[in-house]
Amino acid sequence: MQKKIVSLNELTRNLWWSWDTEAKQIFEELSPLLWERNNHNPVELLRHISQDELEARSYGDFGKKIDAAHDRFTAYMNDKETWAAKNAPELVERPVAYFSAEFGIHESVRIYSGGLGVLAGDHIKSASDLGINFIGITLFYREGYFRQYLNHDGWQMEDYPLQHPEHLPVEKVKRADGSDLVISVNIAQSEVFAQAWRLKVGRATLYLLDTNIAENESHYRDICCRVYGGDQNMRINQEIVLGIGGVKLLEELGEKPAVYHMNEGHSAFLTLELLAMEHAKGATQEEAKASVRSRCVFTTHTPVPAGHDRFSREMMHYTFDKYLATTGITFDDLMLLGSEDRNNIYGLFTMTVLALNLSRAANGVSKLHGEVSRTMWQHLYKDKAVADVPIGHITNGVHASSWTCGLTDSFWKNHAGSIDEMTLSREAAEAALATVSDSELWSLRYSLKRNLFDFIDRYLANQLFHQHSNTFYNEYDVMRSPKNTFSPDVLTIGFARRFATYKRAPLIFSDLDRLDRIINHADMPLQIVFAGKAHPHDDAGKDYIRQIVHHSRRPQFTGKVIFLENYNLGVAKRMVSGVDIWLNTPVRPMEASGTSGEKTVLHGGLNFSVLDGWWPEAYNGENGFAIGNGEFFENHEEQDRFDAEKMYSTLENQIIPAYYNRNAENIPTEWIKKIRNAIATIAPEYNTHRMVRDYATRYYLNK
Fold first, then answer.
1. Residue 315: its H or E element
2. Looking at per-residue confidence, does 485 or 194 come out higher?
3. How far apart are CA 527 and CA 439, in angstroms?
């Protein structure tokens, strides 16, 4: 039995289990209550279960499940016939170093805040699956991103529970002599030290730099405290540790990356350390730049100028004075690398410009975003037409097996062998769908909706325990009353994401009387689930949450519109699997890509979105629904009115009738046809296996 316990503990130390459904079910089976209470963290789970209990339960079928999971894990880790081994052996011999300020790999490791981190998490998992030698670099945020709760008025409040390394599947990086590996960076006039933690993600490795150590002055220990926490000074300090510190860590580890991939501009200071290394070898300034460019690629995710990090000349001088003295880079040279105007080095320093200047390739994250980015940065390439600006695009995808729940995973195993096999190509998806009857798809949808609504009931009960006012008890009692309980029979919309104002979460409440008629239709009703967080400093985003909470308390919407607090990856997985429609209402073209709608397709959900981000590429008129045709108005109020009208009319005239129009077997055949079309056209294309293969062939290998 001891061997099984060793195997179980080994599984907890590698996040491979997070995308293996049967491995996850082993941990949940140990204690469903503790599994939920500890945020699906197997390391923490096993801390609460005795060795005696583990030994006793390892007999019989449970022990066989452990053995089977460990055998799959061992086979996965030892597989030599990967895509990379066959198609990109250079990326097996030397690693890809991927720098990102956040990684959303699993809800139990809170080093992410939103879509950028979720994309990075899916990227590293697909790189592992494809057999790419892949190293991620980020920071260890001991308080992570915040936990959200709402006060009595529906206003978002935040708290920051600590993350303890001993409760996570991380290990401290050591030197050969057993001492802690510690690197240092110069910030202002101080030397700042960082230790490193290692997190295994399948075959890939993620390193997390941590400044919370005794060697540092107290204020520098907090650099890695919170994701995107603090002011501009904290932001630049975090980006120095991430970029410069990350390169120094790789040097200490003896790694020689084939390519450095900057996921957004936060890590662009890594290019300065690479320049300094070239200068130390005796390279001239132009030789150093050429060498750095040959090894760096850059992905931008931000379609509006205000979203790109910029620092004043004064802050740059104060922060980099000591560092530059050791690098062979002059301050004016540094400012020129980050200046949007090559004739003026006295303005702002822009991280995206630094990354563009020192990368051999750059890309946006959807076709539309590529076009927007080329227009946005054309002034850096005055000799080129917009179409020739050297910024391409690779459209984001999702890691399919991470976003399929147990029911969906089993469904595709029965019909295609696995979700990964179903998403290999359109032909593979269509072949799998050919074995699925309409009644089977409809049965799956009902099962997934029941799971979501049971989860919502438990989730709301947990929210209740965190409230102290009788007002909340009374409201919850109303929501739980039989006439107001969410029903799998009712068409269900989901809206969950970061509550930035451009995403326009309250748009569906533009006409309350019209929405009342839609939601409370006697024969074809509607229900809506909302979730999401606003940045702690974004009062406008917080007000959007408050508006939705207030609307949900209106008598006509009570129990039919709900807002789930503390959105995270775990809640996201439940929502994308259970809702019928995934609603997306950004102001075009401000959604660089988005990926949440790609996740719902795997479960038979359909997208209903403004033609922004990835949706203009994917939408064919039969695989979901569009809000308008990409119309743009300079006047924001006019844009909102137009889009709201298109949203309501599409709901009333297309979506709702298609869902409720049933055949003799009570199956909505038109709706099922759209589900089939969505799965066949979207799932094989908009996944991170395709995306990472594109990065490998177009950017990592193409020099």
1. helix 313-324
2. 194
3. 23
